[in-house]
Amino acid sequence: MKVLGLDIGGANIKAADTNGRSLTRGLAVWKDPERLASALSETVAHFLSSDESTSGRTTFDALAITMTAELADCFQTKTEGVEFVLNAANEVADLIPVLVWQTGAEFVTPDVACKIPLLVAAANWHALATFVGRLVPQEAAVLIDIGTTTADIIPLWNGVPVPTGLTDVDRLQSGELIYTGVRRTPLSAIAHAVPFRGGYCPMAAECFASTLDIYLTLGEIPEDPTDCNTANGKPATVTATYDRLARMLCCDKTEFTFDDAQTMVHFLADVQKQHLAGSLDRVLLNLNDEIQSIVICGAGDFIARKLIAENVRTQSAHVINLADTFSPKISETACAFAVAWLASERSLSEWETG
Q1: How far apart, in whole angstroms, are the C-alpha atoms of residue 87 and residue 70?
Q2: Dist. CA 98–CA 107, nearest whole Å
Q3: Residue 111's CATH number
Q4: Most buried residue, 72, 84, 275, 298, by most Cβ within 10 Å?
Q5: Mean pLDDT of all residues in the chain?
Q6: Is residue 268, in this structure, part of any structural domain at all?
Q7: Backbone phi, then psi, for 228, in 5-degree steps?
């Protein structure tokens, strides 16, 4: 089957197909939910217009859907959010079948999905863990996906996800979901104060800067002058980053030096890494056997590599980086790629009959 996978988040739509093509499109669903259907339509059209292997075909056999946008606070409940997202997907799909992943490790129709909203809400991590399990089929393993907003640390046993919890709240409590990422996390959510000229200075509890500014300054994320999806709407460049970082200390660039910025970002990067390291330790406690392999992906895979190297239980593990196995873009849209592959492996008749 020719399938397009869609991971519909509150801030981004991520899409991928089994040919390795991918796309990330920014959309703040909480601000403008009515644009979701048109954004999805544009995303699908992008893949069809650039498809050189269709041999005259102008559509997909199915759209495979997973989501996190249901948590956007424009919706009163997750049920309302799930229904809204799926209505938008159905509108775009028209006559194309829509397959929705749920944490029972199966696809369901949108009608069924709306009846089990808590099983399809934020199920993207489960689709990814199910897909990458085939890379580690006979051993204790861990999936570490560090993205722009959140991180997932999922234990795997013989290729099957064995999480402690399935819902967001259960996963937050278990350490398997960490609400921190490499682009969108406000700096004041990482630490209360930072080193500043021989002492510590509390940071403003305001989103003047985000973790993107840490990793731009450190060179872990490349500059992109065309990207203005930043805390102040100005370019994702190192020069603009210094202004944003300065304001976290209620300064401007005349009061804040290059050395001040370097001290701040090194400290914050270390605090964020230690936060993630603590969650990794908690997840590893549930895997009594020696960790044989670790699968990493996401925009923050560079942090995952550091976590693995510094943890005694993972230092000798075989590391599989989806950026190397597939491509960096697929690594960043891995959940969409996963649902596309999982759906393509099932025939429509099998799916329709359950």
Answers
A1: 12
A2: 9
A3: 3.30.420.40
A4: 298
A5: 94
A6: no
A7: -110, 20
